[in-house]
Amino acid sequence: MQATIPEVRVTIPQALRSLCAAAAPLRDGELCVLARDVRELLGELARQHPDVHVRICDERGEPRPHINVFVNDDHVRARAGLDTPLTAGDLVTILPAVSGG
Amino acid sequence: MASRVVVAVGTKKGLFVFEGSPGAKRLELRGPFFAGMPLNAALIDRRGKTPKIVAVPSSPWFGTTIQVSKDLGKTFKPTKSAPAFAADDGRTLKNVWSLAAGGDSTDYLCGVEPAALFRSRDAGDTWEKVSGITDHTHARQWQPGAGGLCLHTILRHGEALHLGISTGGHYASRDGEQTFAAENAGVGAGFQPNRFPEFGQCVHKIAAHPDRPERLYMQNHGGWEDDPTLGVLRSDDGGRNWTSIAKGLPSDFGFPIAVHPHDPDTVYVVPLEGATRTCPAARPAVWRSDSAGEKWQRLTGGLPKKDAWFTVLRDALDLDDGRQPSVWFGTTTGQLWRGRDGGDSFECVTPALPPIHCVKAAVV
Questions:
Q1: What does DSSP say about strands A91-96 and A7-11: parallel, antiparallel, or unpaired?
Q2: Looking at chain A, which residue has its C-alpha nearest residue B91?
Q3: For residue A84, what are the CA distances in angstroms to A57, A97, B298?
Q4: Are B214 and B234 in contact, with CB atoms under 8 Å apart?
Q5: Residue B349 lies in a domain
Q6: Would you call B85 and A59 a contact, using CB atoms and an 8 Å cutoff?
Q7: Angstrom distance (rounded) from CA B64 to CA B278
Q8: Nearest beta carbon to residue A59 from set B59, B62, B86
Q9: How many of the other CB atoms lie within 10 Å of CB of B336?
Q10: CA torsion B337→B341→B345→B351, rounded to 10°?
Q11: How far apart are CA B224 and CA B146, in angstroms?
């Protein structure tokens, strides 16, 4: 039997919410996405919301240097990076870093 | 409509646009657009019936977009995409440093960091790399300067396309951008054991006038105490060979170089101290030569007489092309200056913008 793909919630940075595709709209600043890990989630963003994905990820499909991705309270860097697994109901938060000056 | 002077000012924190009649004492200020995003590149494109301001904000967080205004900087709209490397290239776009009009009515050329060149044939909606320079056999050997490894100068001049890369040097193509050759004879690199390598020089800016296709001017990375001839250069053979025109300047270090729009012999630089990258003795001056660099004149009218540590970056000086062009320059301390009548008398247009990266001026 094929495993069910978990449905997770994804928060999109405020500055990018207007770029989300109308076909899969935001609800309270969140998207619902089916993905087994963070890499697959970013791939789904590229497919469903390309204008958001290109702002979050570079040409290799990896988060830009000043973009942080959290699964629940954990930065993916502290887990398995883009291979961090997802389970149903997880909250993935994408945030710009506190960099600048 | 009566002519208007338009000045696009890219800063560390967004784009500002100034507009007014060429003789006006005060100009209208609009902006900041793309607030919080640094801009190194902008273009005032007058090829069509409607002049366009094309700006390139590069957000440290959200990447680069190409933004077009058809109403002189009142509103901007992004194109459908921005330059990007292929996923398997290994390089990722960090910044955009130059934007230039291409050879027909809708194409653009865009120089980026890490040093590479992209072309759009559809007014910025789609982009393709220019392989002749982006995949040049030298490309993986270029090294970043303090500002990054950037392709900062795109100059269509005569039958050639000239590029300036820091640190890569000067490259030219004479076959429609199919191939590029390093042309750096006489262009020094004071930071290398071999002072005159084939490539790898830290060229800061290149300028030329369309009426003299054989002549180009270059601000190279000078400031070497043991050789003050490396910084300010001229070529009289289309960029193949370069010689110093720094004699008479207080320093051969600097970033911008610009040519008067109506006189190919008149050229401008802003000499800086090599160590501090600020004006010698903290007394700002623009230097002008009306003899193609043979003799220089110090222009200080209206500028602070002392205690002003101005730094003017490579794209932060420009001349509009009005009947009596003004010299416009911006400082990293956020001042925009206007030198009327070719720089005879300066006035501070605005004293406190964010650090200024680029200034583009035109009369439309």
A1: parallel
A2: A59
A3: 17, 20, 62
A4: no
A5: no
A6: yes
A7: 30
A8: B86
A9: 25
A10: -10
A11: 16
* Within a domain: B337: no
How many structural domains are present in chain B? 1
Q: Tell me, what's the pLDDT at B1?
A: 65
Touching check for B294 and chain A: CB below 8 Å?
no
Mean pLDDT, 10 residues at a time, chain B of 364 residues:
91 97 94 95 94 95 96 96 96 96 90 98 97 98 90 95 97 96 96 94 97 97 90 97 97 97 98 94 98 98 97 98 96 98 97 98 96
CB pairs under 8 A between A and B: 39
Q: Is residue B350 part of a domain?
A: no
Q: Do B61 and A60 touch (CB under 8 A)?
A: no
Which of A58, A66, A99 to substitute to test the interface with B, most B CBs within 10 Å? Answer: A58
Domain coverage including residue B265 = 85-310
Q: Answer whether B92 sits within 8 Å of A97, measured CB to CB.
A: no
> What is the C-alpha separation between A37 and B205, in angstroms, rounded?
47
Q: Does B84 touch chain A (CB under 8 A)?
A: yes
Alpha-carbon span B8 to A87, nearest angstrom: 49
Q: Please give the pLDDT value at position B138.
A: 98
Domains and CATH numbers, chain A: 7-96 (3.10.20.30)
Please state, in angstroms and rounded to a whole number, the distance separating the CA atoms of residues A83 and A35. Answer: 11
Calculate the alpha carbon distances from B169 to A43, A66, B270, B295 in Å.
39, 30, 20, 26
What's B243's domain CATH number? 2.130.10.10
> What's the rounded Cα separation, in Å, for the pair B230 and B67?
37
Domain-embedded: residue B51: no
Restricting to B residues 50-79, those with a Cβ less than 8 Å away from any Cβ of A are 59-63
Q: Which residues of A touch B91 (CB under 8 A)?
A: 59
Residues of B in contact with A97 (CB under 8 A): 61
The verdict on a CB contact (< 8 Å) between B92 and A60 is: yes
Tokens standing for B357?
Answer: 């990266």
Model pLDDT, residue B2 = 76
Residue A1: its pLDDT value, please? 62
pTM above 0.80, yes or no: yes
